Amino acid sequence: MKRLPTGITNFDPLLDGGFPEGTTTLLMGPTGAGKTIFGLQYLYNGITMFDDTCIYITLETRPDDLRLIASQFGWSLSEFEKSNKFIIIDGASSKAQLPTSEKYALKRGFDMESLAEMAYDAIVSTGAKRLVLDSIAGLIPRFDDSGDVRRDLYRISSLLNELKVTSLFIGELESVGAQHRHGIGTEQFVMQGFITLHISEGTEGLERSLLIRKMRYTSHSMKRHRFEIGKNGIRVLGNQKPPR
């Protein structure tokens, strides 16, 4: 099976080389764990290392804030936006009822149908191979029950899979095993992969770690791995051996 490497130092060996092509992975963690940085790095590396066109759908963070986050690591998004190698779909401004000058933006109010339509048009017109949706918490207020969440997440995930776009859906996770989060609890069942990021107090301060809880079509590490966020982004610590 073809794989899309993330280019994140020491992470891809944990998945036997990267995400299986066309899969959707749920990436969850608490505030400050590094979810948005992980998503941006996955896309930026996709462009600079593998010449992939990439799409970032933002439902909660304004696009200029995303660009500012990326610039902290030397990732200049604007130059790739000009050539349509990096596309930001702005759903955050519409939700907040704020004006936007973004080229790709939901103008008539937020709904899943218009989001899926805009994503589809951007993918087909550019040949995008990678996509991040940040975050699914932005979808939750639309729904009255978990069945609605699961149906629409399955719908958009299936669309991306059909187009062979390898995607990350980002979500908030207050604590592992918690039933009530910024989500309903059904999200992981409609995704092919499920990764959690963690932040905890260590002997010398806060420590970050990740755990690959589920990944179809490939072997993967079952261990918790520490990582750090430095000037070049995320780096998983240690020399990781491929899973057996």
What does this structure look like?
Mean pLDDT is 88; it is low at 176-184. Strands 6-5-4-7-8-3-9-10-11-12 form a ten-stranded mixed beta sheet, sandwiched between helices. A two-stranded antiparallel sheet has the order 1-2. It is α/β, with parallel strands linked by helices and 244 residues long. It has six helices and twelve strands. It has helices at residues 35-50, 63-71, 78-82, 92-95, 112-126, 146-162; strands at 3-4, 19-20, 24-29, 54-58, 86-90, 104-105, 130-134, 166-172, 193-202, 205-215, 225-230, 233-236.
Distinctive features:
single chain, alpha/beta, ten-stranded mixed β-sheet, two-stranded antiparallel sheet, 6 helices, globular
Measured as a percent range, the helix fraction is: 25-40%
Give the oligomer, counting copies of the same chain as homo and different chains as hetero: single chain
Query: Into which percentage range does the β-strand content fall?
Result: 25-35%
What's the total count of β strands? 12
Roughly how many Å is the radius of gyration? Answer: 17 Å
Q: Main beta sheet, described?
A: 10 strands, mixed
Provide mean pLDDT, rounded: 88
Helix and strand element order = EEEHEHHEHEHEHEEEEE
Judged by helices, strands and strand pairing, the structural class is alpha/beta
Quickly count the helices.
6
For the largest beta sheet, what order do the strands appear in spatially?
A: 6-5-4-7-8-3-9-10-11-12
The outline comes out as: globular
Low-confidence stretches: 176-184
Distance between the termini: 17 Å
